[in-house]
Amino acid sequence: MREVVLCFPVRTDSSRAIEVLLGHKKTGFGKGNIVGLGGGIEPGEIPEQAALRELQEESGLIGDPEALEHQGQVIFLFPTRENWDMRVQLFVLNCFEGEPTETVEIRPEWFHLDRIPFDHMWADARHWLPRVLLGERLEVQATYLEDLSVVDIQINLPDPASGS
């Protein structure tokens, strides 16, 4: 299973997220969708390093490692395309430098939290992304049919005593 990260930079007002930076995917897996910023974890990297690296590569933003919050994970299962299966670590970031810049892979755009374009995203995002952006920590499993319509979403809250 491929190990991946997603980083969701947020703009805040009185310490509450009001906007999130997402990207119009121009190439590769998910092309044509609006996605979180992220990608694969490279050998020797920990997820936090990968999240900040991918953020900079895809948007030009430089994230503050101290402000990076791990909000859980999503396991994506594609029974008809098992080589697509991935475990995605989710991060929210509220402190960064720079302005988002379009790259070869992503055209970044800020979206108000009540206007996230879920109709242009992977079908599972509407079920967990708003909760993650509001600070909820989740463990999600999304299973997709062959036509890439989601067939099953399972959302669990991690046990705080387990440290996961």
What can be said about this structure in brief?
Helices cover 13% and strands 43% of the residues. The protein is mostly beta strands and 164 residues long. 32% of the residues are buried.
Task: Describe the protein's architecture and organization.
With about 160 residues, the protein is mainly beta. It has a single domain (about 1-70, about 90-135), classed as Nucleoside Triphosphate Pyrophosphohydrolase. About 15% of the residues lie in helices and about 45% in strands. It is built from two helices and eleven strands. A hairpin with an 8-residue loop joins strand 6 and strand 7. It is globular. This is Oxidized purine nucleoside triphosphate hydrolase. Keywords: Hydrolase, Magnesium, Metal-binding. Belongs to the Nudix hydrolase family.
